[in-house]
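Example with several molecule types.
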Amino acid sequence: MSDQEIIVVTGDRTTGPLHLGHLAGSLQNRLRLQGQYRQFLLLADTQALSDHQGDYSRVRQSVIDVALDYLAVGLDPKQSTFLIQSMVPELAELSFYFMNLVSVARLERNPTVKNEIRQKGMERDIAAGFLSYPVSQAADICALKGTLVPVGEDQLPMIEQTNEIVRRFNRMVGSDILRECKAEVGKVARLPGIDGASKMSRALGNHLPLSASPDEIRHAVQRMFTDPQHLRVSDPGRIEGNVVFTFLDAFASDSEQVAEFKEHYQRGGLADSAVKTYLEQVLLELLEPIRLRRAELAKDPDQILSLLMAGSSRAREVAVLTLYQVKKAMGMFYF
Amino acid sequence: MSDQEIIVVTGDRTTGPLHLGHLAGSLQNRLRLQGQYRQFLLLADTQALSDHQGDYSRVRQSVIDVALDYLAVGLDPKQSTFLIQSMVPELAELSFYFMNLVSVARLERNPTVKNEIRQKGMERDIAAGFLSYPVSQAADICALKGTLVPVGEDQLPMIEQTNEIVRRFNRMVGSDILRECKAEVGKVARLPGIDGASKMSRALGNHLPLSASPDEIRHAVQRMFTDPQHLRVSDPGRIEGNVVFTFLDAFASDSEQVAEFKEHYQRGGLADSAVKTYLEQVLLELLEPIRLRRAELAKDPDQILSLLMAGSSRAREVAVLTLYQVKKAMGMFYF
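Resulting structure tokens for the full complex:
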């Protein structure tokens, strides 16, 4: 393995099935990188507990759900390594060492964490494990020797924090044991919710799951936020902030058709319902194969678990090597 | 192993050789418990890094130093299990899970941590690993199934925090997987420094190392804080806050002689120098065998390392079992 090799590390907290926001924000990126580079997909069950304390059965079930979502969209365990965070204890071990390299004040300034704390209404009662989850993410990336991290825009401060830790560690041990990583933001940095809120999120209830049925898709598209000023069909409509057009930009393959719709909508004379019917068709074509593949795969959960076990073992080989290098550099190999 | 079995877990941060404060505050307690109960002695190298970031060679050397101190005072690896924290990665792993069970606000209220932060002048720049070291201590105790923890008085809030985590975890998983522990404070809850400061501490430079030579002992006793009002021998002297008498209470075996000295000193007519000569003799008798044993043992560091390796392996067997129970209870055993 050359030092210059690009390794992709990415993943999801296992707090529930994935949705369209994940597809646009990160899954499409991972599909593009798959086959090009070695890629680790982390099912972060421990991190999930940092804001779902005690919700053990949900986190456990979500490990299977997220793995099913990965497989259904085309992520392939032969080309990408799927792993469960808690099955690679070296990730926790490295996180523990990294905790000494970051100040509490620095963690409290992390914009992603600050936003999430506000959004979740946690304030001063946040768990220590939530405040320090950037440290845990840094450990995940470093332990697996990641150099490229496909993320949504809101996760960019995490990569900055990771590289700060990497530089601090390398400086302290006087050797470039750990490698810095680069973020890769998807084509759609942040997909809005169907209600027009700035981010699609299960917690906000404005999401469309990847496993949505045709009925759910129709329902979601009907509820979708458009231009509240576009009262009569003949009126000119706005496409900025209009979720239907944002979704078309993100998911429609016929960009000429989309451009024509936009022009017509802005000029006036194109009904919301016409654009929505088109989007519904786009989403149906996108999601129906995913839903069917997922339903088929869900029949055999043992096979899912067995591929997660195999992937976790392969990931552990890499993490064990990193921990050996890290502890040796810190003088913590006594023999 | 019955559920009612008493297991002692205790240890020291490896930031330098131990001193008389450790002997009075915890080592004497451990010697008393040794042979009665299963006892784990933890050399906390990772925790040492939480306030000695990057000081890797010092922490590494101190692991040997502290082990030598343990052996020299009579702690016996055949009766007590010596272990190195970083050699039992399950301690870090459990700590990682516990981080989700404690709020940041609760950690910031911990009196021991607050005092240490003030004393070390760390304020808001404290490492996340330092703020959360009570979580790590709780994990050490729980992973080794500790029920009795010999501590100095200043560490009492740590035991409270540990039991809070134990109760929270057991409630969350709905089963008494972890056991609460009890503190055992030594005969001398807190030995003052030779300057009369409330606590003997290497960081404050007011300590007397266990390996002190006769010259160092004499020097320390000469510098020792007595009663600043006791100007003439014939004056009555105060024994409260008088370090020489505090040390005699802690270390002299002839309590009748000490009582006689106290009475005479308070009445007037007993010179500081006379009491100091006596204390010097007491400390010499106490420390000289320790110093000689230590010097002998220090000739063969490989033997020290080998006993630490063996002890860490034995401790790891216990910790692996705990982690299995903990992860199973959290639903994190997927197979």
